[in-house]
């Protein structure tokens, strides 16, 4: 059967993608950040998943303000790279897994999670930057990717608790797929950051450290953090962290921390990264 073997939490700041695409990773500003992802890349090469379920948010690229699904699952064969205003990132197109995605949709909807089916979608930095950070710059991505887009751009975003529960349902859905597959679930965005308004540039390392600690120790506590607390304590865009709880829910009751990295700044974001293996 298919199994969720591990979870990856990582920020997805667009400037990280631009630094790679423009050959700036060795510059003093960027070098500490990319050094921090080297052990993670080695772990990923060794782990070699068959499928990644990428929990991310679209930043008004695939969806504009006409239609904003709360939970959207990408069921296409291919996901082209979005042009976010400076041309599509020069990375390979993302290959999906329509058969498994259809199974996930069926299992999740019968499990009473009302997913939106997306048969055509471009993917933005929210999805491509985490791929770059963990897989580097290959000619083709080494595994299939099923995008799961969560609305965190227009109020109201789903609660962390709902995301955690959806993650648990994804674990059940994956385990009811007969093919032997190693699945890694990503939760992306965060950590503390605010990119607009009078508090632009806000970060909160204390909040972020407690969040990273409790992903393995006490995810139930994290799942009870109300939306307003993310905004108040860690900045408006820290609400992206609910997507890390979706990843955590998919790992089952016990998860062991394998690697962590934390760095400020990347653009205006606190960059956090964690690898958890399901136990
Ligand atoms: C920025 C954008 C993001 O989507 C994000 O998650 C972090 C930072 C930015 O524009 O700097
Ligand atoms: Fe973002």
Keywords:
two-stranded antiparallel ribbon; eight-stranded mixed β-sheet; alpha/beta; binds 3,4-dihydroxybenzoic acid; 10 strands; 10 helices; 279 residues; binds fe (iii) ion; 23% strand; Protocatechuate 4,5-dioxygenase, Chain B
Percentage of residues assigned to helices:
25-40%
Oligomeric state of the chains?
Answer: single chain
Number of strands: 10
Give the count of structural domains: 1
Radius of gyration (Å): 17 Å
Q: Using the coordinates above, name the CATH class.
A: Alpha Beta
The strands making up the biggest β-sheet line up spatially as 6-3-7-2-8-1-10-9
Shape: globular
CATH fold node name? Protocatechuate 4,5-dioxygenase, Chain B
Listed once per kind, the bound small molecules are: 3,4-dihydroxybenzoic acid, fe (iii) ion
Strand content: 15-25%
Total of helices: 10
CATH architecture: 3-Layer(aba) Sandwich
In CATH, what is the homologous superfamily? LigB-like
Order of helices and strands: EHHHEEEEHEHEHEHHHHEE
Determine the structural class based on helices, strands and strand pairing.
alpha/beta
Main beta-sheet annotation: 8 strands, mixed
Please tell me the overall pLDDT.
Answer: 98
Spans of at least 5 consecutive residues with low confidence: none
Task: Detail the topology: elements first, then pairings.
Blueprint: E1 2-10, H1 14-21, H2 31-36, H3 38-47, E2 51-56, E3 71-74, E4 78-79, E5 94-95, H4 98-110, E6 116-118, H5 125-135, E7 144-150, H6 160-175, E8 181-188, H7 205-217, H8 219-223, H9 227-234, H10 242-249, E9 255-266, E10 269-278
The structure holds 3,4-dihydroxybenzoic acid and fe (iii) ion.
């Amino acid at each position: 059967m298919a199994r969720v073997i591990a979870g990856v939490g990582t920020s997805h700041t667009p400037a990280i993608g631009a630094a790679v695409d423009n050959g700036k990773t060795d510059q003093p500003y960027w070098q500490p950040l990319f050094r921090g992802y080297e052990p993670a890349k080695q772990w990923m090469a060794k782990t070699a998943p068959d499928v990644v379920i990428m929990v991310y948010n679209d930043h008004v690229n695939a969806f504009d303000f006409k239609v904003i699904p709360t939970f959207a699952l990408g069921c296409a064969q291919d996901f082209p790279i979005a042009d976010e205003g400076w041309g599509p990132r020069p990375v390979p197109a993302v290959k999906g897994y329509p058969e498994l995605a259809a199974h996930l949709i069926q299992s999740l909807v019968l499990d009473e999670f009302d997913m939106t089916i997306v048969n055509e979608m471009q993917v933005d930095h929210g999805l491509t930057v985490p791929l770059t950070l963990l897989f580097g710059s290959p000619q083709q991505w080494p595994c299939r990717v099923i995008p799961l887009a969560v609305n965190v751009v227009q109020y109201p975003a789903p609660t962390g608790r709902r995301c955690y529960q959806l993650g648990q349902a994804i674990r059940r859905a994956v385990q009811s797929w007969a093919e032997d597959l190693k699945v890694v679930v990503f939760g992306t965005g965060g950590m503390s950051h605010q990119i607009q308004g009078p508090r632009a540039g806000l970060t909160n390392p204390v909040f972020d450290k407690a969040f990273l600690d409790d992903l393995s120790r006490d995810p139930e506590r994290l799942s009870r953090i109300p939306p307003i607390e993310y905004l108040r304590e860690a900045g408006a865009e820290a609400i992206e962290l609910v997507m890390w709880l979706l990843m955590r829910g998919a790992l089952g009751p016990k998860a062991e921390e394998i690697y962590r990295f934390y760095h400020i700044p990347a653009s205006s974001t606190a960059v956090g990264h964690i690898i958890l293996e399901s136990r």
